[in-house]
Write a structure and sequence with these properties.
alpha/beta, three-stranded parallel β-sheet, two-stranded antiparallel sheet, 127 residues, 5 helices
């Protein structure tokens, strides 16, 4: 049986459980096994550098958007071909700013994994 190695950076437990359930469905549909490797934010960058240096690691990894350009420069990423992007709905299927984070030098190096909203609340009088 074919095995796909996927590394993700740990999220909340409900989000991780949801991911595991989606992966179980994917395994059944695709008739393959997914080895889920979980990284922690404090060590994820050094883990990826070690993987890049040794050339041994997961088949697919979730990486921080600010890391994409550096990983592409190290030739640690393979650019996506248009034929691989179109079945996903093309760039228009994603938030523009998140899509652009995965692009450099007219190439697509990363497909968005998720987007979240951050809100900062403050007391004007306290500032």
């Amino acid at each position: 049986m074919l095995t796909l190695r996927l590394s993700v950076i740990r999220s909340t437990e409900p989000a991780m459980e949801y991911l595991r359930s989606v992966l179980r469905e994917y395994e059944a549909d695709q008739r393959l096994k997914v080895d889920l490797l979980t990284q922690e934010w404090p060590t994820a960058w050094s883990d990826l550098i070690r993987i890049t240096t040794h050339g041994i690691g997961p088949d697919v990894s979730v990486v921080g958007t600010t890391w994409i350009a550096a990983l592409a420069a190290m030739q640690a990423l393979r650019p996506f071909e248009p034929s691989e992007i179109e079945p996903l709905g093309g760039p228009a299927a994603f938030l523009g700013s998140i899509w652009q984070a995965g692009c450099a030098h007219s190439r697509v190096w990363a497909i968005p994994w998720l987007a979240d909203t951050r809100v900062i609340l403050y007391w004007r009088s306290a500032l």
